[in-house]
Inverse folding.
C-alpha cells in the first residue's frame, strides 16, 4: 500500500460546478499538507498548503485536513475551464526531512 | 526573476549514450531535487541535495548520478541511457524551513 493514495480520475465537470479532490494517507507523522496544480507540459506549482488539521480558504479554493481520518481534500467552487489541470497532493512530516510524499495526481477537465 | 531553469527542454538519446541535465535556481534556496514523472507512477524522487556539497538518494536513484556544483546548480547525469529512463525530468528547489518546492519546466527525454 502506498503512503499516499489519490484517485487519478479523470474527472470531468461542467463549468460552475463544485469540485472535490481527495487524498488519503497512512503515516500519522505527516504534518504539512499541500496541493499542487500542474498544467499540461508544465511543472507543478503550489496551490495551497495546510499545517496540521483544519481548513484554509483562498478565493475559490478550500483545503481541508482531517488527521483523525487521515484524509485531505481540495474544493474548487465555481470551477472554470482554466482550472483544467492535474492536481497533486503532497505531504511531509515535521523536522528537517525535506522530502515530500506525493499522490499520483487527479486529472480534472472543466467543460465550458 | 527566472526561478528554476532546466536545459535542455527536449532530448532524444540512443541506448547507451550519456547526457547531463542541467538545473539552476536564482532564489538562494539550499535544497534542490531531481524527480522523474511517468504516467501512472506520479512524481518519483531520484536524488536530492539539502545543501551545497551534500547529495542523497531518493526513491529511484539507480542509473543516475548527481552533482551539486554550487548553491545555484544541481545537475543530473545519465551515464548509459536505457529505454526505461524515458520520462519527463523535473528539477525543484526549496528554502530550508519551508514545505514549498518550486519546479522547473521539465526536460522531456526519450531513449530509443
Amino acid at each position: 500500500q502506498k503512503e499516499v493514495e489519490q484517485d487519478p480520475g479523470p474527472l470531468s465537470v461542467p463549468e460552475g460546478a463544485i469540485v472535490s479532490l481527495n487524498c488519503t494517507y497512512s503515516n500519522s507523522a505527516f504534518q504539512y499538507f499541500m496541493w499542487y496544480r500542474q498544467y499540461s507540459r508544465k511543472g507543478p506549482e503550489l496551490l495551497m498548503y495546510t499545517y496540521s488539521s483544519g481548513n484554509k480558504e483562498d478565493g475559490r479554493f478550500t483545503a481541508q485536513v482531517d488527521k483523525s481520518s487521515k484524509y485531505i481534500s481540495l474544493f474548487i467552487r465555481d470551477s472554470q475551464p482554466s482550472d483544467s489541470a492535474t492536481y497533486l497532493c503532497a505531504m511531509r512530516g515535521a523536522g528537517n526531512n525535506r522530502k515530500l510524499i506525493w499522490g499520483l495526481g487527479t486529472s480534472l477537465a472543466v467543460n465550458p | 526573476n527566472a526561478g528554476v531553469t532546466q536545459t535542455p527542454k527536449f532530448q532524444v538519446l540512443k541506448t547507451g549514450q550519456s547526457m547531463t541535465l542541467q538545473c539552476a535556481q536564482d532564489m538562494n534556496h539550499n535544497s534542490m531535487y531531481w524527480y522523474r514523472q511517468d504516467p501512472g507512477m506520479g512524481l518519483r524522487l531520484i536524488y536530492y541535495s539539502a545543501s551545497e556539497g551534500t547529495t542523497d538518494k531518493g526513491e529511484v536513484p539507480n542509473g543516475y548520478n548527481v552533482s551539486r556544483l554550487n548553491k545555484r546548480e544541481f545537475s543530473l547525469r545519465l551515464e548509459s541511457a536505457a529505454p526505461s529512463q524515458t520520462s519527463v525530468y523535473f528539477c525543484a528547489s526549496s528554502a530550508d524551513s519551508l514545505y514549498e518546492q518550486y519546479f522547473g519546466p521539465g526536460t522531456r527525454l526519450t531513449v530509443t
Remarks:
- Chain A touches chain B through 20 residues (CB under 8 Å).
- The first strand of chain A starts at residue 4 and ends at 5.
- The CA atoms of residues 2 and 25 of chain A lie 8 Å apart.
- The mean pLDDT of chain A is 93.
